[in-house]
């Protein structure tokens, strides 16, 4: 509200509040300092379905200034609570215009004079302002409002607006040591400023002065510069430090020209410690080693008056809170389970979204980014609430699963083959909704069972179901009913209700809950659970145990029971011992600051070797969501944590684990009404100090050894603390606060490597892709490379790079390297150089024919039986394929082929394995399809002897014709001799066979297209000579019984 130039400012509005739970708390506030501090004007409650009108006098805050007003809930995430506002208005009177006199009488024919005074004593903005003067009279013709006189004021910018932004001085310093004061001077004006005098006043006295030569005018905001002033204290005490920007003459200032701070000057101490701050830098390879740092402590002989006693303390480092998934709005996260599901060494975090949401999530830690990544999400569909979550080996397969409970329980495991999280099975049980899930050995058989606490939403009756794998089937589950165990709305998570309290080897199970009416202790008798004890803390509404942790609370080796109670006569946390027959209460913590304790959980959160109890719930205003209870013959508050103590955010449960593989324990905190999940860890101290106490005489010194144990330390900057207490009268309670700064430095550079996709025979080409990857276990990294000494190209963080070469040269030198992004000492690996030769030459393809072919004029002529052969060669790399076409589409050449009769244009080319394409070749081809026909005629045309024999020479005539072309050659042979060719095919071929005997004549013809007719055969028998008879026996001799006895001198004649 801009009320500058106004007075008597009022504000009014109408409101309607519906408060479902009745604890939201509604406020109307005002601020005069831009929202730094607020004053509550009024508080409100339920209006019972009616609108209410109010008006407030805010003149004490708003008159003459600019103020902020706000309406707010104390708990902004309260469900089903609404606050409606309407008709907001302000009223006030202008204070910059006055008129005098204010009234008078004017006789007929006369006039009255009134003087109007305009003042800018209030702080007003630059701009135009309007007001009006109303002149009322008894003029019977005009009536009221005889005249309205407008008044306009224009406020111009002032020439100077110099002020002090802030002043910073050490809160505690030593006497007789120079004190340095830092201040920021601002120019909010529209003109440049020169020679600005800045003064330092200590308790109102000028102690130092400096001049700012030049400070430019504001642009989008004020321009600033920092100045440093100093002073020297001569006595102890408290001092007010004022830095004053001296205005130039005529300056108008719209904000404080002075800035203030306070400091305390204390006496020079007797105890001196060197060094004051310890900086240790260690390579990550040394992070698991022990590093000793010397510290010297001295009893100052100049100031000490006696012996100095000292002792050293080094407390825990403090809470470290990290939002699990800032990008996800959890409607109402009620359940968290922690455990290693995928076997990577980091505990996974399972989250169930609560009221009116049916979603389950799993997160895993990424050591590179230092963040948690969502690795599983599923909307389970129509489940009323995914409130119950647990992680453990539910099916006894040696691997953990995440269990999400709504109407059914979904078992989610990790599939190593696919690398994904999947629903492995579903537990279906008769009741409506799970409120808690526990995985453990319930009956002492050495195998895990699943205990499910349940509620019937309609009737709020409580049941539980004990479930285990059915025999031989890991995807189905058997049910065993156990009554009166559970509750409603996450108030009975019963984090750790199972343990062998009496040491008999059979675990006991504790149960309770919102509607249970008390606490139950159960034991398995071999067939079913039987109740062995029941107890209450009478009083309140429901007398409900809300949480349970069975643990060794006091470190004596025996288990105790810790139970949180709500709506009972003794709400808070109780510790008990079970003797086997009775329950003995050990201690009671009343949980101040906590409206309802929802759960208790046991773990050694700070790794001090002692079990602590973590109490969570809904706090009162100013309370904490998490309280850590230690045990020393009773409860004591060891620590606490709150996300914001001004709001009533609910924390229904907590679970622990090592989610990032450091040495600390992380806690999973589902802040249901804050719609977030936090991961919280108590980071302990990295060092020990020895000795921890001693006595120093005047002037004596002693060496302290600070031992840094970097076990589990990752790359980063760490701060640790220890305190030296002493009886030094000049020191406050803590004599010296030592800050130990540890830098675990990454000294190992990343490792990069280059691989090439498509580099046959060491050559690269247009399709060759170069991929450079890198790895670094400790720090993020970035890849750099350049080609042939050119421009250095930079990759993205933790991202591989890929590129291809342009092929403008034959030889390329690739230089590449990786550098990590460790902020203090970036590590760059040695540069790699690799040489590659670029093959831009395509293959060469040759066309040939296997069979008859001829080049006629401007084309090839072949037959339909002629094989077309394509052969490709490449001097550098292999040929990937030969392509050809004689139609629309390219074909891949695999083997020689033929073409049917016709005219063709054959296109062909080759492509090598580097995608170099040959220029397309073109070959016109004519294919003839009909072979020629040869006729054979003999002369004489028929045998002129007997029985198919010729008795004289035979003349053979061969005549070949072709229907669609020219006969090229006639082939013939006699008696399987050499083929004879006859090419004068335009004339018949004739020849004579003269030799006696049986002859075989074979012949065929081939045309110009290579078409060949089948071989034809003719048989020719020739016998030109008469036969002769020679008598061999008997000769001219005398024969007796066929045996020649005596030759004879005469001979026989035979006449024809």
Provide a descriptive summary of the structure in words:
The chain has eight domains: 6-93, Galactose-binding domain-like (Jelly Rolls, Sandwich), CATH 2.60.120; 96-155, no CATH class; 162-266, Sandwich (Immunoglobulin-like), CATH 2.60.40.10; 271-314 and 686-743, Immunoglobulins (Immunoglobulin-like, Sandwich), CATH 2.60.40; 319-682, 7 Propeller (Methylamine Dehydrogenase, Chain H), CATH 2.130.10; 753-838, Immunoglobulin-like, CATH 2.60.40; 844-928, Immunoglobulin-like; 933-1022, Immunoglobulins (Immunoglobulin-like, Sandwich), CATH 2.60.40.10. The radius of gyration is 53 Å and the shape is elongated. The strands form 22 sheets. It has a six-stranded mixed sheet with strand order 65-66-71-70-68-69, with no helix packed on it. It contains one helix and 80 strands. The protein is an all-beta fold and 1056 residues long. It is 0% helix and 53% strand.
Low-confidence runs of at least 5 consecutive residues:
456-466, 482-491, 1051-1056
CATH homologous superfamily placement of the largest domain: YVTN repeat-like/Quinoprotein amine dehydrogenase
Distance between the termini: 164 Å
Domain count: the total is 8
The top level CATH class name of the largest domain: Mainly Beta
- Give the helix level as a range of percent: under 10%
> Main sheet?
6 strands, mixed
What value does the Rg take, in angstroms? 53 Å
Strand line-up of the largest beta sheet: 65-66-71-70-68-69
Q: Total number of β-strand segments?
A: 80
Mean pLDDT: 82
What sort of overall outline do the alpha carbons produce when their principal axes are compared?
elongated
């Amino acid at each position: 509200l801009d009320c500058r130039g106004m007075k008597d400012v009022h504000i009014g509005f109408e409101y309607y509040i519906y408060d479902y739970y009745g604890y939201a708390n509604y406020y109307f506030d005002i601020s005069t300092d831009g929202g730094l501090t607020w004053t509550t004007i009024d508080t409100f409650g339920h209006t019972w379905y009616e609108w209410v009108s109010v008006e407030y006098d805010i003149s004490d805050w708003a008159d003459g200034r600019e103020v902020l007003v706000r309406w707010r809930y104390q708990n902004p995430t309260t469900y089903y609570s609404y606050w409606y506002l309407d008709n907001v208005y302000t009223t006030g009177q202008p204070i910059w215009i006055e008129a005098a006199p204010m009234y008078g009488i004017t006789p007929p024919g006369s006039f009255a004079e009134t003087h109007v005074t305009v003042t800018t004593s209030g702080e007003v903005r630059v701009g135009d302002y309007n007001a009006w003067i109303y002149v009322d009279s008894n003029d019977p013709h005009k009536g009221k409002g005889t005249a309205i006189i407008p008044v306009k004021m224009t406020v111009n910018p002032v020439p100077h607006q110099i002020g002090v932004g802030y002043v910073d001085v050490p809160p505690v310093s030593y006497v007789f040591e120079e004190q340095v004061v830092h201040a920021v001077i601002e120019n909010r004006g529209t003109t440049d400023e020169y020679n600005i005098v800045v003064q330092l006043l200590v308790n109102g006295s000028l102690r130092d002065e400096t001049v700012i030569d030049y400070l430019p005018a504001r642009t989008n905001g004020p321009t600033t510069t920092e100045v440093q002033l100093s002073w020297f204290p001569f006595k102890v005490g408290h001092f007010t430090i004022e830095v004053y920007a001296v205005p130039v003459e005529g300056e108008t200032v719209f904000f404080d020209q002075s800035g203030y701070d306070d400091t305390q000057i204390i006496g020079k101490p007797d105890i001196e410690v060197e060094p004051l701050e310890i900086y240790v830098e260690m390579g990550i390879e040394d992070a698991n080693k022990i590093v000793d740092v010397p510290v010297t402590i001295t009893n100052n002989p100049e100031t000490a008056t006696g012996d100095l006693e000292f002792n050293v303390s080094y407390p825990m480092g403090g809470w470290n809170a990290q939002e699990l998934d800032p990008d996800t709005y959890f409607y109402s996260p009620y359940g968290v389970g922690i455990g290693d599901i995928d076997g990577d060494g980091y505990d996974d975090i399972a989250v169930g979204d609560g009221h009116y949401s049916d979603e389950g999530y799993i997160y895993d830690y990424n050591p590179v980014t230092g963040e948690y990544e969502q690795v599983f999400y599923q909307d389970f569909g129509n489940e009323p609430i995914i409130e119950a979550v647990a992680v453990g080996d539910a099916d006894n397969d040696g691997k953990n699963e995440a269990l999400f409970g709504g109407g059914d329980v979904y078992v989610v495991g990790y599939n190593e083959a696919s690398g994904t999280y999947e629903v492995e099975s579903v537990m279906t049980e008769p009741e409506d909704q799970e409120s808690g899930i526990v995985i453990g050995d319930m009956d002492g058989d050495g195998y895990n069972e699943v205990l499910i606490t349940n509620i019937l939403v309609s009737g709020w009756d409580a049941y539980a179901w004990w479930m285990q794998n059915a025999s031989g089937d890991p995807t189905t589950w058997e049910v065993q009913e156990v009554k009166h165990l559970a509750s409603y709305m996450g108030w009975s998570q019963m984090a750790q209700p199972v343990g062998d309290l009496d040491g008999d080897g059979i675990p006991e199970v504790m149960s309770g809950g919102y509607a249970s009416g008390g606490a139950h202790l159960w034991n398995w008798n071999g067939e079913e659970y039987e109740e062995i004890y029941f107890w209450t803390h009478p009083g309140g509404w429901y007398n409900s145990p809300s949480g349970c942790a069975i643990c060794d609370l006091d470190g004596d080796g025996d288990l105790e029971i810790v139970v949180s109670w709500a709506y009972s006569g003794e709400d808070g946390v109780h510790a008990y011992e079970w003797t086997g027959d009775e329950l003995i209460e050990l201690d009671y913590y009343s949980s101040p600051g906590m409206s309802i304790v929802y759960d208790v959980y046991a773990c050694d959160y700070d790794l001090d070797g002692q079990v602590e109890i973590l109490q969570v719930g809904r706090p009162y205003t100013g309370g904490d969501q998490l309280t850590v209870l230690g045990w020393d013959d009773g409860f004591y508050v060891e620590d606490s944590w709150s996300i914001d103590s001004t709001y009533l955010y609910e924390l229904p449960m907590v679970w622990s684990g090592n989610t990032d593989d450091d040495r600390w324990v992380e806690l999973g905190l589902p802040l249901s009404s804050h719609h977030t999940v936090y991961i919280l860890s108590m980071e302990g101290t990295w060092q020990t100090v020895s000795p921890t106490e001693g006595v120093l005489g005047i002037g004596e010194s002693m060496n302290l050894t600070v031992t840094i144990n970097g076990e589990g330390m990752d790359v980063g900057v760490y701060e640790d603390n220890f305190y030296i207490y002493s009886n030094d009268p000049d020191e406050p309670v803590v004599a010296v606060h030592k800050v130990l700064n540890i830098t675990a430095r990454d000294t190992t550079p990343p490792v990069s490597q280059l691989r090439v996709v498509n580099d046959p025979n060491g050559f690269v080409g247009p399709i060759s892709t170069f991929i450079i990857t890198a790895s670094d276990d400790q720090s993020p990294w970035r890849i750099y490379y350049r080609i042939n000494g050119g421009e250095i190209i930079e990759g993205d963080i933790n991202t591989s790079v890929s590129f291809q070469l342009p092929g403008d040269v034959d030889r390329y030198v690739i230089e590449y390297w990786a550098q990590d992004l460790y902020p203090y000492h970036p590590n760059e690996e040695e540069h790699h150089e690799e040489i590659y030769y670029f093959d831009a030459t395509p293959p060469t393809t040759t066309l040939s024919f296997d069979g008859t072919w001829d080049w006629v004029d401007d084309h090839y002529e072949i037959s339909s039986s002629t094989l077309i052969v394509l052969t490709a060669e490449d001097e550098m790399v292999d040929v990937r394929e030969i392509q050809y076409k004689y139609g629309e589409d390219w074909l891949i050449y695999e083997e020689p082929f033929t073409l049917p009769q016709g005219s063709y244009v054959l296109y062909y080319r080759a492509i090598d394995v580097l995608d170099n394409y040959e220029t397309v070749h073109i070959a016109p081809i004519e294919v003839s399809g009909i072979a020629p026909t040869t006729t054979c005629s003999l002369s004489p045309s028929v045998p002129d002897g007997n029985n198919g024999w010729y008795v004289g020479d035979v003349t053979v005539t061969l005549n070949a014709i072709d229907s669609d072309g020219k006969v090229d050659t006639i082939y013939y042979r006699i008696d399987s001799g050499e083929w004879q060719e006859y090419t004068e095919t335009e004339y018949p071929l004739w020849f004579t066979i003269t030799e006696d005997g049986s002859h075989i004549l074979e012949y065929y013809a081939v045309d110009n297209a290579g078409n060949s007719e089948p071989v034809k055969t003719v048989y020719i028998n020739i016998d030109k000579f008469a036969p002769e008879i020679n008598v061999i026996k008997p000769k001219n001799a005398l024969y007796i019984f066929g045996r020649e006895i005596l030759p004879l001198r005469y001979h026989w004649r035979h006449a024809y």
